[in-house]
């Protein structure tokens, strides 16, 4: 008589399932171990922050003045220090440090500016030489490590709202020049508010993992196959000016999408437009002198007028760049791969003059009417036809026709300009547009925006009252 053993012998499917679970657990443990080992190796074998540049950036200089300033830094005595500080001020402007580290104009470089991110709010630190609340007790090596590796004085990981991912390309000499200039600032005793990041994003050690996927440490190396002008432009655009931080879209980790460099992105509601050579979506149809004019003054008549964050970049940074450096930036941008954004025509080729003012005479208006609101609030400066006042003069009120903000395929920038106004001061002109957010409600802002895009710009670009309300809250 045979015994029934089915109750004590597991079937084949059960055995295979158990084996799969064990193998899966082992694989997960192995993956975690490899990750931990990779971080440990990275920490122990990372580059020495005191290492010299891979190649002297003087090979990439496009102007003798810049070379002379760098050379002066190697001399002894007060003259050398003066040249170093002067060079540092120029580089600090090129890097636009003031834009993020100045929340209150009465406290320049003392930080406190809140930066909205998908993971919470990051508040910029004080970088004045105050010993208690600033960087007065930082050594040059501490400063270099922060700029090149994103690591603070106490060994804490810095968040990439500080663009160390770009500044890592800046040469040691230029970093030390920036440090020398910051040391001459008035120390301001001010502790900015703390960051507001929820768990786990408030755990700085996680930045080690982020860096593995989104950061490559190393100085800029000039390309011997390219001209000095191209190399200088690449050094500025990829490093000091960190243009990709705004003009390149981001992945799910908020790292830059290298496959879509300079193709445009949205930052705190503002659309940083495509600056690749694509003729429809980018700046491929712009002349070189128009790009230089836009960077130096914020205005390229018939093309665009800088507002919002880009207006601040012009006012704080690019207006101070030498003509040679501006041309170098243009040369480099001309060489990057063109990326199409799907536009059917360039942003600056939309629009026709309006004649609504005559149609409104004697008409009873009920409800919120965009044309009426435009005539009442905008026509004094931009003309009721939308053609502006002053043509291409430095202080002109720009035309809304052939205007890249109005002709964009989304209406966010236009709505934000109406909400917040424009205040751009350069050597060319003081440009002021009042902010209407204080006395027009969200429905009225949306009505004006939609009227302007329909009449003078891209009629496909519309905005709702709810979207205006959301833009109003963004920092």
From TrEMBL:
Binding positions for heme c 2 per the UniProt entry: 243, 246-247
Listed PROSITE patterns: CYTC
List of residues binding heme c 3: 378, 381-382
Span of domain Cytochrome c: 77-186, 228-337, 365-456
Binding site for heme c 1: 97, 100-101
Cofactor binding annotation: Binds 3 heme c groups covalently per subunit.
Transmembrane segments: none
Record-linked InterPro entries: Cyt_c-like_dom, Cyt_c-like_dom_sf, Cyt_C_IC, Cytochrome_c-type_DH, Membr-bd_ADH_cyt_c
Cofactor: heme c
Ranges of Polar residues composition bias in the record: 1-17
One function term, GO molecular function aspect: iron ion binding
Region Disordered, residue ranges: 1-20
Keyword line: Cell membrane, Electron transport, Heme, Iron, Membrane, Metal-binding, Repeat, Signal, Transport
Record-level GO cellular component terms: plasma membrane
Keyword Cell membrane: yes
Main location: membrane
SUPFAM superfamilies with a match to the protein in the record: Cytochrome c
PANTHER family for this protein: ALCOHOL DEHYDROGENASE CYTOCHROME C SUBUNIT, BLL4482 PROTEIN-RELATED
Protein name: Gluconate 2-dehydrogenase
Organism in which the protein naturally occurs: Paraburkholderia monticola
Organism ancestry: Bacteria, Pseudomonadati, Pseudomonadota, Betaproteobacteria, Burkholderiales
